[in-house]
Amino acid sequence: MRRDVTAHLALDVQVPATLVLQIAVAARQALDEQLTVTSSGAPVTPREITDPLGNRVHVLDAAVGPLVVDYRATVTGRGGPLDTSELELLRCLRPSRYCESDELGPTAHGEFGGLSGPDLLAAVGSWVGTRLAYVPGSSLHTDGAVRTLLARRGVCRDYAHLVVALLRALDVPARVVAVYAPGLAPMDFHAVAEAWVDGAWRVLDATTMAPRGTLVRIATGRDAADTAFLSVHHGVAVLETLEVSAVADVLPDDDVRTLATIG
User: In order of start, what are the domains of the chain with their CATH numbers?
Assistant: First the structure.
C-alpha cells in the first residue's frame, strides 16, 4: 500500500520562540520525505530528535516574522512493530493529564466488567462511539476524558482520550497515537487509541472516520500532551494556516470487530 501525506503550517512569530513540531512520519516506516522550513523567506534547519517510541521531534528557534513549514512523505508497505518494554506497559496503565482513568474506574467496571481481549476493545470502541457526538470546535485543549464524557461530544482526540482512560481503568495498557489518516473527512491530523492485547498494540478509532489499515503513525504517547503537532515555548507564535492531506492508493474495508495494528 502506498500513502502520500503532506502538512502545511503558516505561523506568525510575534516574540522569538522555540517551536516543537511532531508532523514527520514516525521511525521504522519505509518512506521518501522532505521537510522545509522558512523564516521570513529564509531557510531554517530544525534539529531532529528521535525518542525510544520512534517519535521524531523537530525543534527550531524561530525569529519574529512569518514562518512556513512544509512536509511531505510517501510511505510504502508496513512499518515494523515498535519495541515495547515492561516499563512502557506500566506507564500506559497509569492515569495521565488527559486520561483520568482513576476517576473512571466505576464507570469502566460497571459497563465492561467481565469482558477481555478483542471483546473488550469492541465494546469500549462501540460504547464511546455511540455516546459521543463528533462536533468540531466543541472541546477545549484543556479537556480530558472525564469532561468529554460529561459533555458527550468532542473531536478525535477526545474520543481517543476516553477510550484510553476506560481501558486503563480496567488494567489494559493503552495510549494515544497521532496519525495521518487517508479517507478522513474533513481532512486533518487524526488521533486514535492503541491497547496492548494478545501481545501487540491494537488500534481503536471510536470515531470510525477512517479505515485503520491506512493509518500512518506520527507520534505515540500517554495522551495529547505527548503527541501535539505543534508546541510553542519561550515566546509567542500564532498558527494562521494548517493544511493536511493523506491519500492511499487503496481504501480497504474496515471491520471494527476485528483486531488491527498500525503498520
Answer: 2-78+230-246 (2.60.40.2250), 86-225 (3.10.620.30)
